[in-house]
Amino acid sequence: MSTTPVKDFLSDFGDLVRFMMRFFNRFWRRPFEGRELLRQMDEVGSKSFLLTSVTGLSIGIVMAMQSRGTLIRFGAEAVLPNMLALSIIKEIGPVITALVLAGRLGAGIGAEIGSMRVTEQIDALEVAALKPFHFLVVTRVLACMIMFPILTLWTDSIAMFGGYIESLIASGMDYRIFISTAFESLRFSDVIIDTGKTAIFGFIVAIVSCYLGFHVRGGTREVGQAAMRAVVGSSLLILLTDVVIVRLSLLIFGDV
Known about the structure:
The chain has 256 residues and is mostly helical. It has nine helices and no strands. It has helices spanning 4-26, 34-44, 49-73, 80-118, 121-127, 132-171, 175-182, 188-214, 220-253. The termini are far apart.
């Protein structure tokens, strides 16, 4: 059997690791592209609020509807808010938000930088000694790392609101009972760890997308392939990284 696919994968992975090391070696050095960083934070954050709002609302309502019948059969309908809070804040909210943003941002970043590469705009910046790596890569990676946790908190909040709306319609639950029940088993470490891990997810989405865009060779067809690979690759890495982070958090902090 040919080992070419394995060699290609290992070669690409090695190049990605070197690209990551290049980021860590340069992100704290001048020039600091503050204005571009703010623009990218706006691109990542405010322009994703509607998408994450719809995602969170649907997650909360659907989870409440799906879980209610099962909990009623066991006489445990009262724990529905608590179950929603634990499942949404600890796992579903962060992962779904990261995957949704990977679909939106991964393709956009990969296609944008890839288009600049094939039209030789990046080469022109390098010739002009304007350090395109700082302007194009560092700003996007930092913007994603900053905004992913903020968007995750927003998605979690909207999801809990959706769960409350469903509980209000289905059983007339008072909002004070819903809130007090929802957070009685949730620890501060759960919120910090499970929301903070989305900064790592943001790093993955941005660094993979920038790497694929930065190394596009060819024409528009290759740009489209880079955008597609950015979404697929970052989504897979998010799921694999989540397994590792959850395992480590259980070893350090224990279960609920």
